């Protein structure tokens, strides 16, 4: 298998209680030139590890954590992720889940809109997409699974705002939430880059996001729907 080298190397900590999956994720990332600095099997160990690295001035770029970890296998992983986002705003956090768990996704997305991701574990099989998501979150971007986006947008309480968007604009917004670039959205929808830019401009206008909001408008557009 030929593995493409990367230019943007990131430092990753993996929190996953399944040793097999943890080793698999490590292999996927290291084979593509990234540094997995440590791996742990529970949420408390994750918090202690990151705190120790921070004290040494070696905070990782991103943490990849399972939602459910020991001892109860309920919400230890996402609780640790939320705590780390609050304590280390510059730390990217990418959470993996077996299913779309709306409460956890919404809690993770609350507050700061930078450096956050929520993917279903099935998405790991799409190796390039998974690695791209890790890099994107490490760089302060977002990476939301299409199924997560669909469910959260569909259940949003802000249906009055959602109703103002055309079906195509909602489709574009969903792809934006996944972290896709304009060019990637254009390829997905088989339209021109200019058409995508027009749709995004309309979305910003309908959501009341002014140019002064800068690059964060993309994330703010998504969070408008995801926040309860």
UniProtKB/TrEMBL annotation:
Record has Phosphoprotein as a keyword: yes
**Annotated Response regulatory domain residues:** 11-136
List residues traversing the bilayer: none
* Pfam families tied to this protein: GerE (PF00196), Response_reg (PF00072)
Give all residue intervals belonging to the HTH luxR-type domain: 158-228
Q: Which residues carry this modification: 4-aspartylphosphate?
A: 66
What are the protein's UniProt keywords? DNA-binding, Phosphoprotein, Transcription, Transcription regulation
Q: Which InterPro entries match?
A: CheY-like_superfamily, NreC/VraR/RcsB-like_REC, Sig_transdc_resp-reg_C-effctor, Sig_transdc_resp-reg_receiver, Tscrpt_reg_LuxR_C, WalR-like
What domain of life does the native source organism fall in? Bacteria
What this protein is called in its record is DNA-binding response regulator
Can you name the source organism?
Streptomyces gardneri
């Amino acid at each position: 298998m030929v593995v493409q080298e990367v230019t943007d190397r990131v430092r990753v900590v993996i929190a996953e209680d399944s040793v097999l999956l943890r080793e698999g994720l490590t292999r996927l990332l290291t084979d593509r030139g990234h540094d997995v600095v440590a791996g742990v099997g529970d949420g408390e160990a994750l918090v202690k590890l990151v705190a120790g690295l921070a004290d040494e001035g070696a905070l990782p770029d991103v943490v990849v954590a399972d939602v459910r970890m020991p001892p109860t296998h309920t919400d230890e992983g996402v609780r640790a992720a939320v705590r780390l986002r609050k304590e280390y705003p510059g730390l990217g956090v990418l959470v993996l889940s077996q299913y779309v768990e709306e409460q956890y996704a919404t809690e993770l997305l609350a507050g700061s809109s930078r450096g956050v991701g929520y993917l279903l574990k099935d998405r790991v099989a799409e190796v390039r997409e998974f690695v791209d998501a890790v890099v994107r979150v490490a760089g302060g971007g977002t990476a939301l699974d299409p199924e997560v986006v669909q469910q959260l947008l569909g259940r949003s309480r802000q249906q009055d705002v959602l109703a103002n968007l055309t079906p195509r604009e909602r489709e574009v917004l969903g792809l934006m939430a996944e972290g896709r670039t304009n060019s990637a959205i254009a390829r997905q929808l088989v339209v021109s880059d200019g058409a995508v830019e027009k749709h995004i401009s309309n979305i910003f206008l309908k959501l009341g996001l002014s140019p002064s909001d800068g690059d964060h408008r993309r994330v703010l557009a998504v969070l408008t729907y995801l926040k309860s």
